[in-house]
Amino acid sequence: MDIKNIKLVVFEHDAAHPFAADHGFSTFIRSLRQEGLQTALLARKTDDGAGGGYDFHLDPAGHPSLKSLIARTGYHWFNVLFFVSSQALLDRVRRENLKRIVRGTVCDFPSADNLFADFSELDPRTVIEIGRPTRLQADPWTLAETELIPARSPYWESIFSACNGYMGLRASHPETAGAAEAFATPGFFINGYYGIEYPEGYTDRYGPCKSQIMLNLIDWRRIDLIVDGQLVAISPQNLTSYSRRLDMRTGLVARELVCRHGDKEIRIEEQKLVSMTRPHCAAILYRVTPLNFGGTVTLRSGLKTDTYTQQFGTTGLKTIRLAAEHDRFDFVGEAEVSGLTMTAAVKHTCRTSDSRPAAVGNTTTTDTLCQTDFSARLACGETLVLEKHAAFYTDVDPEPYDLDSARQTATATAGDG
Questions:
Q1: pTM higher than 0.70
Q2: 385 versus 198: which is more confidently predicted?
Q3: 3-state secondary structure string, the chain?
């Protein structure tokens, strides 16, 4: 969100937590005025404590539009920044597409970005020019995310997408339990693998083609963490550290976090790669380390076929074969209208840090999902490592292929590690 050229800053009156009482507000607003900005208080005239010290007092009562209320000050709404402290105002400024910064926590505003808790966190010049509480450290080769904000997941999934010209994988978190999953938009695409949309009334390939649509294919990134029989959900509330980075030199997307699960602390490390030298191959490395306990750790790897392509309202891909066999998934599918086929094989290797193989169990398959559990008993500080190697082929490929081609490729890359 671009927040350049701010001239007026509007503060929402919050009787429960008055700005002037604490949180570095007085210093912050004095700095704004030194920069030449004017300020306004958004409050009903009947509110206690909605007093002076501001350049304008804006009463929202009787004004269905905040933009019309702003116009009374002589400023254009584009040059106004709202400091929001309630969900009601957040909803309202979103509807009118107004610039805002939200005071609170992820618990209070799970769908908000630009959050801050204390005015001492904010640099006035940064707020005026960019509108974000903090700046990411500049690095010419690395893109970095340093805080998990679930509502921002679609943005970072695009930024951290891994592509090699043949295929592309959006950077959705592998865990399907947690706050980020509610906002996730997983996507896996293969270049040239299209569905076809026909105008209404034409239902076969002999009608006029309205458009060709790149299909969102199988969701093979899924890895869930289970500790002592309980599913671990990743959310901002249970994180003690978090970072995710894309190294533009290597193409690796690396994530590291420490989360709490009750009184247990767990480190999770993940690396994701779509290979440039082996264009049909992609891989995920997932490491789990208990930091203050010992117990049974299970990694549940999955492959899901009922993904979503917006134009079709479904995946647009018909499943011909879906199977989970010990440490491998097999998939064969066909585009519903174009008739293009694709095959995929996913090979797993799972061992502890001292090279003990994990136990393979609870392999299940439904019409749209196959998944396998890999489990090991870990001591405190010991690590369970899952490698998930995938290979993909389609009718678009110039060379002939079959399911065995995908199996052999996935097995070979898993052997290379």
A1: no
A2: 385
A3: CCCCCCCEEEEECCCCCCHHHCCCHHHHHHHHHHCCCEEEEECCCCCCCCCCCCCEEECCCCCCCHHHHHHCCCCCHHHEEEEECCHHHHHHHHHCCCEEEEECCCCCCCCCCCEECCHHHCCHHHHHHCCCCCCCCCCCCEEEECCCCHHHHHHHHHHCCEECCCEEECCCCCCCCEHHHHCCCCCEEECCCEEEECCCCCCCCCCCCCEEEECCCCECCCEEEEECCEECCECHHHEEEEEEEEECCCCCEEEEEEEEECCEEEEEEEEEEECCCCCCEEEEEEEEEECCCCEEEEEEEEEECCCCECCCCECCEEEEEEEEECCEEEEEEEECCCCCEEEEEEEEEEEECCCCECEEEEEEECCCEEEEEEEEEECCCCCEEEEEEEEEEECCCCCCCCHHHHHHHHHHHHHHC
